[in-house]
Amino acid sequence: MRTNLQRLYATGTLVLGYAAQIIAQTSHKPMNIVYIMSDDHSYQTISAYDKRFIETPNIDWLAEHGTRFTNSFVANSLSGPSRACMLTGKHSHANGFTDNTKTFDGSQQTYPKLLQKAGYQTAMIGKWHLTSDPTGFDYWDILIGQGHYYSPDFKCNGTRVRRPGYVTNVVTDLALDWLSNKRDKSKPFCLLLHHKAPHRVWSPDTCDLDLYNEKVYPLPNNFYDNYEGRLAAAKQEMSIIKDMDLVYDLKMADKENEIHSNPDLEAIGRMNYKRMTDSQRAQWDAHYDPIIKKFKEAGLSGKALAEWKYQRYMHDYMRVIHSIDRNIGRVIKYLKENNLLENTMIVYTSDQGFYMGEHGWFDKRFMYEESFRTPLLVYLPGGKHGDVDEMVQNIDYAPTILELAGVKIPSDIQGESFLPLLEGKKVKDWRKSLYYHYYEYPAEHSVCKHYGVRTDRYSLIHFYDDVNAWELYDLKNDPEQMHNIYGEKGTEKITKKLKKELHKLQNQYDDPIRFKLKDN
Protein backbone atom coordinates (compact mmCIF):
# COMPACT_ATOMS: atom_id res chain seq x y z
CA MET A 1 0.00 0.00 0.00
CA ARG A 2 1.34 3.42 -0.97
CA THR A 3 0.53 6.02 1.68
CA ASN A 4 -0.43 9.65 1.03
CA LEU A 5 2.93 10.64 2.47
CA GLN A 6 4.83 8.39 0.06
CA ARG A 7 2.90 9.87 -2.85
CA LEU A 8 3.92 13.36 -1.71
CA TYR A 9 7.57 12.33 -1.63
CA ALA A 10 7.28 10.68 -5.03
CA THR A 11 5.86 13.84 -6.63
CA GLY A 12 8.46 16.05 -4.97
CA THR A 13 5.92 17.88 -2.82
CA LEU A 14 7.53 19.48 0.23
CA VAL A 15 6.21 17.95 3.44
CA LEU A 16 6.54 20.27 6.43
CA GLY A 17 4.41 17.96 8.52
CA TYR A 18 1.76 15.54 7.39
CA ALA A 19 -0.27 16.68 10.38
CA ALA A 20 -1.10 19.88 8.51
CA GLN A 21 -3.29 17.87 6.15
CA ILE A 22 -5.30 16.44 9.02
CA ILE A 23 -5.91 19.45 11.22
CA ALA A 24 -7.75 22.59 10.14
CA GLN A 25 -6.57 23.90 6.79
CA THR A 26 -5.84 27.30 8.31
CA SER A 27 -3.20 25.81 10.60
CA HIS A 28 0.35 25.31 9.36
CA LYS A 29 1.87 24.17 12.63
CA PRO A 30 3.76 20.86 12.63
CA MET A 31 2.29 18.18 14.84
CA ASN A 32 3.70 17.60 18.32
CA ILE A 33 3.56 14.17 19.98
CA VAL A 34 2.92 13.40 23.64
CA TYR A 35 3.29 9.64 24.06
CA ILE A 36 2.19 8.49 27.52
CA MET A 37 2.85 4.88 28.48
CA SER A 38 2.21 3.15 31.78
CA ASP A 39 3.71 -0.15 32.89
CA ASP A 40 1.33 -3.12 33.20
CA HIS A 41 -1.91 -1.16 32.86
CA SER A 42 -4.62 -3.64 31.93
CA TYR A 43 -7.30 -2.60 29.46
CA GLN A 44 -9.82 -4.09 31.92
CA THR A 45 -9.11 -1.23 34.33
CA ILE A 46 -9.85 1.65 31.97
CA SER A 47 -13.52 2.57 32.00
CA ALA A 48 -13.42 3.43 28.28
CA TYR A 49 -12.92 -0.34 27.81
CA ASP A 50 -14.53 -1.93 30.86
CA LYS A 51 -16.68 -0.34 33.56
CA ARG A 52 -16.60 -3.19 36.11
CA PHE A 53 -13.71 -1.96 38.24
CA ILE A 54 -12.91 1.74 38.10
CA GLU A 55 -13.75 5.06 36.49
CA THR A 56 -10.88 6.74 34.61
CA PRO A 57 -12.37 10.03 33.37
CA ASN A 58 -9.13 11.61 32.15
CA ILE A 59 -7.99 8.59 30.16
CA ASP A 60 -11.55 8.28 28.87
CA TRP A 61 -11.30 11.89 27.61
CA LEU A 62 -8.91 10.61 24.95
CA ALA A 63 -11.49 8.07 23.80
CA GLU A 64 -14.31 10.62 23.85
CA HIS A 65 -12.35 13.19 21.85
CA GLY A 66 -10.27 10.76 19.82
CA THR A 67 -9.89 7.13 18.89
CA ARG A 68 -10.25 3.96 20.92
CA PHE A 69 -8.46 0.95 19.44
CA THR A 70 -10.43 -2.16 20.33
CA ASN A 71 -7.87 -4.63 19.00
CA SER A 72 -4.50 -3.34 20.18
CA PHE A 73 -1.76 -5.87 20.91
CA VAL A 74 1.95 -6.19 21.72
CA ALA A 75 4.65 -8.28 20.06
CA ASN A 76 6.29 -9.60 23.26
CA SER A 77 4.43 -9.08 26.56
CA LEU A 78 7.34 -8.01 28.75
CA SER A 79 8.46 -4.54 29.79
CA GLY A 80 11.90 -4.05 28.21
CA PRO A 81 11.20 -5.96 24.99
CA SER A 82 7.92 -4.13 24.51
CA ARG A 83 9.70 -0.76 24.82
CA ALA A 84 12.31 -1.83 22.29
CA CYS A 85 9.56 -2.85 19.85
CA MET A 86 7.89 0.53 20.30
CA LEU A 87 11.09 2.52 19.73
CA THR A 88 12.28 0.59 16.69
CA GLY A 89 9.06 -0.56 15.01
CA LYS A 90 10.58 -4.05 14.89
CA HIS A 91 9.92 -7.40 16.52
CA SER A 92 12.21 -8.47 19.37
CA HIS A 93 14.49 -10.72 17.31
CA ALA A 94 15.10 -7.82 14.89
CA ASN A 95 15.89 -5.16 17.51
CA GLY A 96 17.95 -7.57 19.65
CA PHE A 97 16.14 -7.01 22.96
CA THR A 98 14.32 -10.31 23.35
CA ASP A 99 14.13 -10.39 27.16
CA ASN A 100 14.95 -8.36 30.25
CA THR A 101 18.44 -9.86 30.60
CA LYS A 102 19.53 -8.03 27.44
CA THR A 103 20.96 -4.54 26.93
CA PHE A 104 19.33 -2.36 24.29
CA ASP A 105 21.67 -1.42 21.44
CA GLY A 106 21.28 2.34 21.47
CA SER A 107 23.25 2.76 18.26
CA GLN A 108 20.43 1.31 16.19
CA GLN A 109 17.74 3.24 14.35
CA THR A 110 14.80 4.46 16.45
CA TYR A 111 11.97 6.80 15.63
CA PRO A 112 13.13 9.52 18.10
CA LYS A 113 16.45 9.67 16.22
CA LEU A 114 14.63 10.08 12.92
CA LEU A 115 12.45 12.81 14.43
CA GLN A 116 15.57 14.60 15.69
CA LYS A 117 17.04 14.62 12.19
CA ALA A 118 13.78 16.12 10.93
CA GLY A 119 14.06 19.03 13.36
CA TYR A 120 12.01 17.73 16.27
CA GLN A 121 12.97 18.22 19.88
CA THR A 122 12.77 14.90 21.73
CA ALA A 123 12.53 14.07 25.42
CA MET A 124 12.30 10.84 27.39
CA ILE A 125 11.01 11.14 30.98
CA GLY A 126 10.18 8.31 33.38
CA LYS A 127 10.64 4.57 33.07
CA TRP A 128 13.16 3.51 30.41
CA HIS A 129 14.08 -0.04 31.53
CA LEU A 130 16.40 -0.85 28.64
CA THR A 131 19.70 -1.00 30.63
CA SER A 132 21.66 1.26 28.26
CA ASP A 133 21.30 5.04 28.42
CA PRO A 134 18.75 6.63 26.08
CA THR A 135 19.89 7.82 22.65
CA GLY A 136 18.00 9.97 20.21
CA PHE A 137 16.78 12.38 22.89
CA ASP A 138 17.72 16.02 23.44
CA TYR A 139 16.72 15.60 27.07
CA TRP A 140 16.27 12.52 29.19
CA ASP A 141 15.45 11.98 32.84
CA ILE A 142 14.83 8.32 33.54
CA LEU A 143 14.04 6.10 36.49
CA ILE A 144 16.90 3.80 37.40
CA GLY A 145 15.95 0.19 36.73
CA GLN A 146 12.36 -0.59 37.65
CA GLY A 147 12.14 2.58 39.72
CA HIS A 148 10.64 3.02 43.20
CA TYR A 149 7.22 4.32 44.12
CA TYR A 150 8.54 6.56 46.92
CA SER A 151 11.55 8.88 46.75
CA PRO A 152 12.50 7.48 43.33
CA ASP A 153 16.04 7.58 41.95
CA PHE A 154 16.53 9.12 38.50
CA LYS A 155 19.34 9.51 36.03
CA CYS A 156 19.05 12.95 34.42
CA ASN A 157 21.18 13.30 31.29
CA GLY A 158 23.74 11.07 33.02
CA THR A 159 23.56 12.49 36.56
CA ARG A 160 21.98 10.43 39.34
CA VAL A 161 19.47 12.20 41.58
CA ARG A 162 16.92 11.09 44.19
CA ARG A 163 13.67 13.04 44.18
CA PRO A 164 11.18 13.22 47.04
CA GLY A 165 7.56 12.38 46.46
CA TYR A 166 5.40 9.75 44.78
CA VAL A 167 6.72 8.49 41.47
CA THR A 168 3.67 9.15 39.27
CA ASN A 169 3.48 12.75 40.50
CA VAL A 170 7.23 13.25 40.11
CA VAL A 171 7.34 11.91 36.53
CA THR A 172 4.43 14.17 35.58
CA ASP A 173 6.07 17.17 37.31
CA LEU A 174 9.24 16.59 35.31
CA ALA A 175 7.32 16.28 32.04
CA LEU A 176 5.38 19.49 32.62
CA ASP A 177 8.56 21.28 33.65
CA TRP A 178 10.23 20.22 30.41
CA LEU A 179 7.24 21.41 28.39
CA SER A 180 7.20 24.75 30.22
CA ASN A 181 10.85 25.56 30.81
CA LYS A 182 13.34 23.25 29.11
CA ARG A 183 12.32 22.94 25.46
CA ASP A 184 12.87 25.26 22.53
CA LYS A 185 9.32 26.45 21.88
CA SER A 186 10.14 27.35 18.30
CA LYS A 187 10.47 23.66 17.41
CA PRO A 188 7.95 20.79 17.27
CA PHE A 189 8.43 18.23 20.01
CA CYS A 190 8.02 14.57 20.82
CA LEU A 191 7.72 13.80 24.53
CA LEU A 192 7.80 10.23 25.81
CA LEU A 193 6.22 10.25 29.28
CA HIS A 194 6.63 6.78 30.76
CA HIS A 195 5.12 5.90 34.13
CA LYS A 196 6.43 3.20 36.44
CA ALA A 197 2.93 2.59 37.75
CA PRO A 198 1.05 0.31 38.02
CA HIS A 199 3.95 -2.16 37.93
CA ARG A 200 4.26 -4.63 40.79
CA VAL A 201 4.02 -3.92 43.78
CA TRP A 202 1.13 -1.54 43.14
CA SER A 203 1.95 0.92 45.94
CA PRO A 204 -0.60 3.76 46.05
CA ASP A 205 0.02 7.42 46.62
CA THR A 206 -0.64 7.98 50.34
CA CYS A 207 -3.48 10.40 49.55
CA ASP A 208 -5.27 7.54 47.77
CA LEU A 209 -4.83 4.81 50.38
CA ASP A 210 -8.44 4.86 51.57
CA LEU A 211 -10.03 4.93 48.14
CA TYR A 212 -12.41 2.07 47.35
CA ASN A 213 -12.27 0.69 50.90
CA GLU A 214 -15.83 -0.60 50.67
CA LYS A 215 -15.54 -1.97 47.16
CA VAL A 216 -15.74 -5.75 46.69
CA TYR A 217 -14.32 -6.77 43.34
CA PRO A 218 -15.98 -9.61 41.42
CA LEU A 219 -13.94 -12.79 41.24
CA PRO A 220 -13.16 -13.79 37.63
CA ASN A 221 -15.06 -16.82 36.38
CA ASN A 222 -11.79 -18.71 35.85
CA PHE A 223 -10.01 -17.62 39.03
CA TYR A 224 -9.77 -21.28 40.09
CA ASP A 225 -8.58 -22.49 36.69
CA ASN A 226 -7.06 -26.00 36.84
CA TYR A 227 -5.17 -25.54 33.50
CA GLU A 228 -6.45 -28.78 32.02
CA GLY A 229 -5.00 -29.33 28.56
CA ARG A 230 -2.54 -26.43 28.95
CA LEU A 231 0.86 -27.67 30.10
CA ALA A 232 2.65 -24.32 30.03
CA ALA A 233 -0.15 -22.62 31.94
CA ALA A 234 0.17 -25.25 34.66
CA LYS A 235 3.92 -24.60 34.99
CA GLN A 236 3.72 -20.83 35.57
CA GLU A 237 4.59 -19.14 38.85
CA MET A 238 2.34 -16.07 38.70
CA SER A 239 -0.55 -17.37 40.74
CA ILE A 240 -2.30 -15.04 43.17
CA ILE A 241 -2.96 -18.05 45.38
CA LYS A 242 0.56 -19.52 45.41
CA ASP A 243 2.98 -16.82 44.28
CA MET A 244 1.66 -13.43 45.41
CA ASP A 245 3.84 -12.49 48.36
CA LEU A 246 2.23 -11.37 51.62
CA VAL A 247 4.90 -8.83 52.56
CA TYR A 248 6.31 -7.73 49.21
CA ASP A 249 3.09 -7.61 47.19
CA LEU A 250 0.40 -7.18 49.83
CA LYS A 251 2.27 -4.94 52.29
CA MET A 252 1.81 -7.13 55.38
CA ALA A 253 5.13 -5.93 56.85
CA ASP A 254 4.06 -5.99 60.48
CA LYS A 255 5.96 -4.07 63.15
CA GLU A 256 6.14 -7.21 65.31
CA ASN A 257 7.99 -9.03 62.49
CA GLU A 258 5.71 -12.05 62.83
CA ILE A 259 4.56 -12.30 59.21
CA HIS A 260 7.15 -13.90 56.96
CA SER A 261 7.18 -14.78 53.30
CA ASN A 262 9.76 -15.42 50.58
CA PRO A 263 12.96 -14.17 52.31
CA ASP A 264 14.26 -12.17 49.33
CA LEU A 265 10.90 -10.59 48.53
CA GLU A 266 10.14 -9.91 52.18
CA ALA A 267 13.43 -8.02 52.56
CA ILE A 268 12.61 -5.83 49.56
CA GLY A 269 9.09 -5.24 50.84
CA ARG A 270 10.35 -4.04 54.21
CA MET A 271 13.01 -1.89 52.52
CA ASN A 272 10.37 -0.16 50.35
CA TYR A 273 8.70 1.07 53.55
CA LYS A 274 11.96 2.72 54.63
CA ARG A 275 12.09 4.86 51.49
CA MET A 276 9.09 6.88 52.65
CA THR A 277 9.21 10.16 54.50
CA ASP A 278 7.92 10.34 58.08
CA SER A 279 4.68 11.87 56.82
CA GLN A 280 4.20 9.15 54.22
CA ARG A 281 4.89 6.42 56.78
CA ALA A 282 2.33 7.92 59.17
CA GLN A 283 -0.37 7.80 56.47
CA TRP A 284 0.75 4.33 55.41
CA ASP A 285 0.60 3.00 58.97
CA ALA A 286 -2.83 4.53 59.57
CA HIS A 287 -4.12 2.58 56.60
CA TYR A 288 -2.22 -0.72 56.72
CA ASP A 289 -1.77 -1.37 60.46
CA PRO A 290 -5.47 -2.13 61.05
CA ILE A 291 -5.50 -4.38 57.95
CA ILE A 292 -2.43 -6.26 59.20
CA LYS A 293 -3.97 -6.65 62.66
CA LYS A 294 -7.22 -8.00 61.25
CA PHE A 295 -5.35 -10.35 58.92
CA LYS A 296 -3.32 -11.84 61.77
CA GLU A 297 -6.45 -12.36 63.84
CA ALA A 298 -8.35 -14.03 60.98
CA GLY A 299 -5.88 -16.88 60.39
CA LEU A 300 -7.04 -17.33 56.80
CA SER A 301 -6.24 -20.36 54.67
CA GLY A 302 -7.42 -22.08 51.50
CA LYS A 303 -10.01 -20.27 49.41
CA ALA A 304 -10.57 -17.62 52.06
CA LEU A 305 -6.88 -16.64 51.90
CA ALA A 306 -6.84 -16.78 48.10
CA GLU A 307 -9.83 -14.46 47.79
CA TRP A 308 -8.50 -12.12 50.48
CA LYS A 309 -5.28 -11.84 48.46
CA TYR A 310 -7.27 -11.05 45.33
CA GLN A 311 -9.20 -8.25 47.04
CA ARG A 312 -6.01 -6.73 48.52
CA TYR A 313 -4.33 -6.85 45.10
CA MET A 314 -7.29 -5.27 43.34
CA HIS A 315 -7.70 -2.48 45.89
CA ASP A 316 -4.06 -1.41 45.69
CA TYR A 317 -3.93 -1.72 41.89
CA MET A 318 -7.04 0.45 41.45
CA ARG A 319 -5.66 3.12 43.76
CA VAL A 320 -2.50 3.27 41.66
CA ILE A 321 -4.61 3.56 38.48
CA HIS A 322 -6.53 6.44 40.07
CA SER A 323 -3.24 8.32 40.48
CA ILE A 324 -2.25 7.67 36.86
CA ASP A 325 -5.60 8.96 35.66
CA ARG A 326 -5.32 12.08 37.83
CA ASN A 327 -1.87 12.85 36.41
CA ILE A 328 -2.95 12.30 32.83
CA GLY A 329 -5.61 14.89 33.58
CA ARG A 330 -2.82 17.28 34.58
CA VAL A 331 -1.11 16.79 31.21
CA ILE A 332 -4.31 17.32 29.23
CA LYS A 333 -5.07 20.44 31.29
CA TYR A 334 -1.60 21.84 30.58
CA LEU A 335 -1.94 21.25 26.85
CA LYS A 336 -5.37 22.91 26.83
CA GLU A 337 -4.22 25.94 28.81
CA ASN A 338 -1.16 26.42 26.61
CA ASN A 339 -3.06 26.13 23.30
CA LEU A 340 -1.22 22.95 22.33
CA LEU A 341 -4.22 20.68 21.75
CA GLU A 342 -4.74 22.05 18.25
CA ASN A 343 -1.47 20.54 17.00
CA THR A 344 -0.54 17.81 19.49
CA MET A 345 -1.28 14.11 19.18
CA ILE A 346 -1.71 12.45 22.59
CA VAL A 347 -1.22 8.69 22.85
CA TYR A 348 -2.05 6.63 25.92
CA THR A 349 -1.07 3.00 26.11
CA SER A 350 0.67 0.42 28.30
CA ASP A 351 3.76 -1.63 27.56
CA GLN A 352 1.50 -4.69 27.70
CA GLY A 353 -1.67 -6.00 29.28
CA PHE A 354 -2.01 -7.58 32.71
CA TYR A 355 -4.00 -10.26 34.52
CA MET A 356 -6.56 -9.06 37.02
CA GLY A 357 -7.12 -12.50 38.50
CA GLU A 358 -8.09 -14.21 35.24
CA HIS A 359 -6.81 -17.79 35.33
CA GLY A 360 -5.93 -17.02 38.96
CA TRP A 361 -3.02 -14.83 37.81
CA PHE A 362 -1.25 -11.51 38.10
CA ASP A 363 1.58 -10.44 35.73
CA LYS A 364 1.68 -10.90 31.92
CA ARG A 365 4.02 -12.77 29.46
CA PHE A 366 1.56 -15.26 27.93
CA MET A 367 0.01 -14.84 24.50
CA TYR A 368 -3.40 -15.22 26.12
CA GLU A 369 -5.67 -12.24 25.57
CA GLU A 370 -5.32 -10.38 28.88
CA SER A 371 -1.56 -9.90 28.49
CA PHE A 372 -1.37 -9.91 24.68
CA ARG A 373 -3.87 -7.04 24.43
CA THR A 374 -2.98 -3.54 25.54
CA PRO A 375 -5.01 -0.34 25.76
CA LEU A 376 -4.48 2.22 23.01
CA LEU A 377 -6.26 5.59 23.00
CA VAL A 378 -5.22 8.39 20.65
CA TYR A 379 -6.29 12.01 20.47
CA LEU A 380 -5.46 13.49 17.07
CA PRO A 381 -6.68 16.99 16.15
CA GLY A 382 -9.03 16.62 13.22
CA GLY A 383 -8.80 12.85 13.43
CA LYS A 384 -11.37 10.11 13.92
CA HIS A 385 -13.73 10.11 16.88
CA GLY A 386 -14.80 6.57 17.75
CA ASP A 387 -13.53 3.02 17.59
CA VAL A 388 -10.99 1.39 15.31
CA ASP A 389 -11.46 -2.37 15.20
CA GLU A 390 -8.52 -3.30 12.96
CA MET A 391 -5.70 -5.21 14.66
CA VAL A 392 -2.73 -3.00 15.52
CA GLN A 393 0.49 -3.84 17.35
CA ASN A 394 3.13 -1.87 19.23
CA ILE A 395 5.56 -2.23 16.30
CA ASP A 396 3.12 0.10 14.49
CA TYR A 397 3.71 3.10 16.77
CA ALA A 398 7.04 4.12 15.22
CA PRO A 399 5.86 4.27 11.60
CA THR A 400 2.62 5.99 12.62
CA ILE A 401 4.47 8.75 14.47
CA LEU A 402 7.00 9.15 11.67
CA GLU A 403 4.31 9.47 9.02
CA LEU A 404 2.41 11.97 11.17
CA ALA A 405 5.58 14.07 11.47
CA GLY A 406 6.26 13.96 7.74
CA VAL A 407 9.32 11.74 8.09
CA LYS A 408 9.92 9.02 5.54
CA ILE A 409 9.40 5.55 7.02
CA PRO A 410 12.52 3.38 6.59
CA SER A 411 11.95 0.18 4.64
CA ASP A 412 13.34 -2.04 7.42
CA ILE A 413 10.63 -1.03 9.91
CA GLN A 414 8.35 -4.05 10.34
CA GLY A 415 5.27 -2.27 11.67
CA GLU A 416 2.59 -0.50 9.64
CA SER A 417 1.47 3.09 10.06
CA PHE A 418 -2.10 3.26 11.33
CA LEU A 419 -2.35 6.98 10.57
CA PRO A 420 -4.97 6.30 7.87
CA LEU A 421 -7.09 4.55 10.52
CA LEU A 422 -6.74 7.59 12.77
CA GLU A 423 -7.99 9.67 9.86
CA GLY A 424 -11.11 7.52 9.74
CA LYS A 425 -10.18 5.74 6.52
CA LYS A 426 -10.77 2.10 5.73
CA VAL A 427 -7.55 0.45 4.61
CA LYS A 428 -8.35 -2.28 2.13
CA ASP A 429 -5.26 -4.42 2.64
CA TRP A 430 -4.81 -4.02 6.41
CA ARG A 431 -3.30 -7.03 8.20
CA LYS A 432 -5.50 -10.00 9.04
CA SER A 433 -3.14 -11.66 11.52
CA LEU A 434 -0.58 -10.85 14.23
CA TYR A 435 2.71 -12.48 15.16
CA TYR A 436 3.88 -12.89 18.77
CA HIS A 437 7.08 -14.26 20.31
CA TYR A 438 8.00 -14.48 24.01
CA TYR A 439 11.53 -15.56 25.02
CA GLU A 440 12.28 -15.09 28.73
CA TYR A 441 12.60 -18.59 30.19
CA PRO A 442 13.78 -19.91 32.58
CA ALA A 443 13.11 -16.77 34.56
CA GLU A 444 10.80 -15.09 37.03
CA HIS A 445 7.23 -16.42 36.83
CA SER A 446 8.34 -19.47 34.82
CA VAL A 447 6.44 -18.80 31.60
CA CYS A 448 7.74 -21.04 28.81
CA LYS A 449 9.00 -19.68 25.51
CA HIS A 450 6.36 -19.49 22.84
CA TYR A 451 5.35 -17.94 19.56
CA GLY A 452 2.03 -17.79 17.82
CA VAL A 453 -0.43 -16.24 15.41
CA ARG A 454 -3.74 -14.53 16.10
CA THR A 455 -6.50 -13.80 13.62
CA ASP A 456 -9.86 -12.15 14.25
CA ARG A 457 -11.25 -15.46 15.56
CA TYR A 458 -8.45 -17.89 16.36
CA SER A 459 -5.26 -18.01 18.38
CA LEU A 460 -2.61 -20.65 17.68
CA ILE A 461 0.32 -20.89 20.11
CA HIS A 462 3.41 -23.11 20.10
CA PHE A 463 5.33 -23.53 23.37
CA TYR A 464 8.83 -24.80 22.73
CA ASP A 465 12.06 -25.95 24.41
CA ASP A 466 11.09 -26.96 27.97
CA VAL A 467 7.52 -27.72 26.89
CA ASN A 468 6.75 -28.77 23.33
CA ALA A 469 3.03 -28.18 22.98
CA TRP A 470 0.55 -26.55 20.64
CA GLU A 471 -2.58 -24.73 21.76
CA LEU A 472 -5.54 -23.60 19.65
CA TYR A 473 -8.38 -21.38 20.82
CA ASP A 474 -11.63 -20.33 19.21
CA LEU A 475 -11.87 -16.79 20.59
CA LYS A 476 -15.49 -16.43 19.50
CA ASN A 477 -16.74 -19.46 21.43
CA ASP A 478 -14.07 -19.48 24.14
CA PRO A 479 -12.97 -15.88 24.82
CA GLU A 480 -11.50 -16.84 28.21
CA GLN A 481 -9.24 -19.42 26.51
CA MET A 482 -10.10 -22.28 28.81
CA HIS A 483 -10.41 -25.04 26.19
CA ASN A 484 -7.41 -25.96 24.09
CA ILE A 485 -8.95 -27.52 20.99
CA TYR A 486 -5.67 -28.33 19.24
CA GLY A 487 -5.83 -31.86 17.83
CA GLU A 488 -9.58 -32.20 18.33
CA LYS A 489 -11.63 -33.70 15.53
CA GLY A 490 -12.94 -31.04 13.21
CA THR A 491 -10.07 -28.60 13.77
CA GLU A 492 -7.75 -30.04 11.13
CA LYS A 493 -8.60 -27.51 8.42
CA ILE A 494 -8.29 -24.39 10.58
CA THR A 495 -5.11 -25.74 12.22
CA LYS A 496 -3.49 -26.25 8.83
CA LYS A 497 -4.54 -22.76 7.72
CA LEU A 498 -3.19 -21.11 10.90
CA LYS A 499 0.12 -22.97 10.73
CA LYS A 500 0.53 -21.81 7.17
CA GLU A 501 -0.15 -18.23 8.29
CA LEU A 502 2.26 -18.56 11.22
CA HIS A 503 4.96 -19.86 8.92
CA LYS A 504 4.32 -16.98 6.52
CA LEU A 505 4.70 -14.41 9.31
CA GLN A 506 7.88 -16.00 10.64
CA ASN A 507 9.36 -15.78 7.14
CA GLN A 508 8.02 -12.26 6.58
CA TYR A 509 9.63 -10.98 9.79
CA ASP A 510 12.69 -13.21 9.33
CA ASP A 511 12.47 -14.75 12.80
CA PRO A 512 15.43 -17.15 13.14
CA ILE A 513 13.38 -19.33 15.53
CA ARG A 514 10.61 -20.94 13.54
CA PHE A 515 8.93 -24.27 13.05
CA LYS A 516 9.18 -26.32 9.86
CA LEU A 517 5.84 -26.33 8.14
CA LYS A 518 6.41 -29.67 6.43
CA ASP A 519 6.94 -31.40 9.78
CA ASN A 520 3.68 -30.13 11.27
Report on the architecture of this protein.
The chain has 520 residues and is α/β, with parallel strands linked by helices. The protein has helices at residues 4-10, 57-64, 79-88, 92-95, 111-117, 167-182, 231-235, 240-243, 263-274, 278-298, 302-337, 369-372, 397-405, 419-422, 492-508; strands at 32-38, 67-69, 72-73, 121-127, 139-143, 153-156, 159-162, 189-194, 344-350, 376-379, 386-388, 392-393, 434-438, 450-454, 458-463, 469-474. A hairpin with a 5-residue loop joins strand 15 (458-463) and strand 16. It starts with a helix and ends in a 12-residue tail after the last helix. The model is unreliable at 1-26 (pLDDT under 50).
Give the tags.
ten-stranded mixed β-sheet; four-stranded antiparallel β-sheet; globular; alpha/beta; 32% helix
In short:
The protein is an alpha/beta fold.
